[in-house]
Amino acid sequence: MNLFSIALFAILLLNPKVTMNNISDGDLVWRNFTDGIREASASNKKVLVDVYTDWCGWCKRMEKDTYSDEDIKNYLTANYVIVRLNAESDAKEMLGDAEVTEATLAKAYGVTGYPTMVFLMPDGKFITSVAGYMKPSEFLPVLKYICEDYYKQMNYQDYLNSRNAPAK
Questions:
Q1: pLDDT confidence of residue 166
Q2: What domains sit in the chain, N to C, each tagged with a CATH number?
Q3: Which among 111, 125, 146 has a CA at the least distance from the CA of 37?
Q4: Distance of alpha carbon 117 from alpha carbon 143, whole angstroms
Q5: Structural contact between residues 123 and 117, judged by C-beta atoms closer than 8 angstroms
Q6: Phi then psi dihedrals of residue 122, to 5 deg
Q7: Distant-in-sequence, close-in-space partners of 85: CB < 8 Å, separation ≥ 6
Q8: Which of these, 30, 34, 46, 114, could form a disulfide with 56 (CB 3.0-4.6 Å)?
Q9: Largest CA distance in the chain
């Protein structure tokens, strides 16, 4: 074992939040795009791609306020494969048989502002995207609307109205 391998092993052993291809953030395990699509296909879960930049203050606030919320963490863990994508990164990912950068992927999904949450089917097909910071109370209904396929039946405002309607 060379010195580099020993150092890498020590880093991984001493910091359980770091893995080779995935980033753990509290209870959430963020995948890279390639691994996320592979896992989603195997588990038949939809994919949430959190597109961010390192300098984005609203991205950091979304991380601190929204993704750390217990209800959000529980729902995401149970229902989605979650992916982090740096819109300015040259890191290589696979899109089908093509190797592309994370920056290219962000552009391909039409991302122009940060944060943007891109929702994909388990096979990687685009569903929709939502741009901007969202509080947990705003974000959870969006997650449910997409995951539970309400988007196939009604627009988002009708979905919100149906959730707030008094029981008959």
A1: 57
A2: 17-149 (3.40.30.10)
A3: 125
A4: 10
A5: no
A6: -55, -25
A7: 33, 49, 50, 51, 52, 93, 102, 105, 106, 118
A8: 114
A9: 69
51 has which bridge partners?
Answer: 85, 116
pLDDT on residue 27: 75
- Segment-wise mean pLDDT, segments of 10 residues, the chain, 168 residues: 39 37 65 96 97 97 97 97 97 93 96 97 96 97 97 95 70
Q: Which residue has the tokens 């391909």?
A: 108
